[in-house]
Amino acid sequence: MKIPPVKGTRDFYPPEMAIRNFIIDGWKAASLRNGFEEYDSPIFEYLKMYQIKSGDEIVEQLFNLTDRGGRDLAIRPEITPSLARMVNQQINALPRPIKWFSVPRLCRAERPQKGRLREFFQWNIDIIGVDDVIADAEVIFTTIDYLRNLGLTDKDIKVKISSRKLLSAVLKNIGIPEKKLDSLYVLLDKKAKLPDETFDKLLAEQVSDSEMAGKIKTFMGIKKVSQIKEKVGFDDRVDEAIDELAMLVDLLGRMSVKNYCQFDPSIVRGLAYYTGIVFEVHDVVGELRAICGGGRYDNLLKDFGGPQISATGMGMGDCVLEILLKEKGLLKSKQLKLDYFVACADNQYFEKAVELTARLRLAGASAAFSYKATGLGKQMKQASANGAKKCIIIGEEFEAGQLAIKDMGTGEQELVAIEDFFEKINN
Ligand code: HAM
Predict the structure, then answer these.
(1) SS3 sequence, the chain?
(2) For ligand 1, is residue 298 a contact (CB within 6 Å)?
(3) How much is the mean pLDDT over the chain?
(4) Ligand 1 atom closest to Cα of 108?
């Protein structure tokens, strides 16, 4: 009986693994370059952790289980609640600001589709303990720094930025009561994914006054922050949120990444815990789902029983990113690259090849040899397939204490005395 992989999961054979490593190594390098330290959490947590503040959508998508002690658990669908739990646990001991990153493997029982699977990897960067927009700017900058480093330009991707604070102020100013905001956010977040008529119908169900509904739609379509006051009205709270966005844009300009960014009030974010600046990165063509998303969540630590400490961060999955990089011809893979392949000119040198390979490895070089006695041509082929930079061919010269070393790039071959060679490697 053949058993297939579970729907929405992936097998990573070496070529796929090489791509995954290319993506993840870049995430880690960008995090360290921007001053983030790595952390991790368990892959399962108490189910109730996600029921507190992640939002209904995430809860519906949980893979949950009951352990033998009858405890309700869930596989992590995101790491932000675990981060809040971990920080709360050591809140007095941790030096602030906390700038942490992680690359968790996550599971969500979503309907598998292009760019959305049931198991994926997600880069997370978060800054905790800074209530100034400088932290939001740092998170956005680090995100762009990674994407730019891959070769994606502002013609390929845009960071669409808005603010939950602004949205809530505008909605309240329009006349929407506070208690209706959360359910309205869920609908507004889906606007781009719904046909216009469906959105209008769902909006009318939540906001029966057509003038109010019209103003909400006008706001969602605004392209410039400067148009907000004139088009949908303002009060002190709206003013404050606009000022905060202006400060963010100023900082992003100073960081030389403003060209990647645009204001887009239709960015709401699906998760329930966001409180301030929110953003998503999208492909400019608009064919793919969001590449990443994040924002400020100033109440999550408190909701998890800790102190009121502000936080902001971002999560980027590997799936949409991989599709986009493939489309743009920017996907590279970290395949096997050996320093040396040890080949035998004749089968009688097989044991010597074993000894030499082991000696190379013990000296810190990466090396391999053929397990089977085959012709030199086949061994050279294996050397190329293994990405070997050099091939050491053991033949007659070996008896005279010499190694024939072939550069696989240039094809040039040289003879080197074995002990001189190892002296060089050891140094
Ligand atoms: P999220 O919007 O749920 O936010 O996910 C962020 C990113 O994770 C998405 O933009 C996408 O790249 C990836 N992602 C989400 N679901 C899937 C899926 N089913 N398959 C593949 N990729 C997926 C969060 O998770 C927040 N916790 C991010 C955050 C960190 N906010 C603040 N700090």
Answers:
(1) CCCCCCCCCCCCCHHHHHHHHHHHHHHHHHHHHCCCEECCCCCEEECHHHHHHCCHHHHHCCCEEECCCCCEEEECCCCHHHHHHHHHHCCCCCCCCEEEEECCEEECCCCCECCECCEEEEEEEEEECCCCHHHHHHHHHHHHHHHHHCCCCCCCEEEEEEEHHHHHHHHHHHCCCHHHHHHHHHHHHCHHHCCHHHHHHHHHHHCCCHHHHHHHHHHHHCCCHHHHHHHHCCCHHHHHHHHHHHHHHHHHHHCCCHHHEEECCCCCCCCCCCCCEEEEEEECCCCCCCCEEEEECCCHHHHCCCCCCCEEEEEEECHHHHHHHHHCCCCCCCCCCCCEEEEECCHHHHHHHHHHHHHHHHCCCCEEECCCCCCHHHHHHHHHHCCCCEEEEECHHHHCCEEEEEECCCCCEEEEEHHHHHHHHHC
(2) no
(3) 95
(4) 19
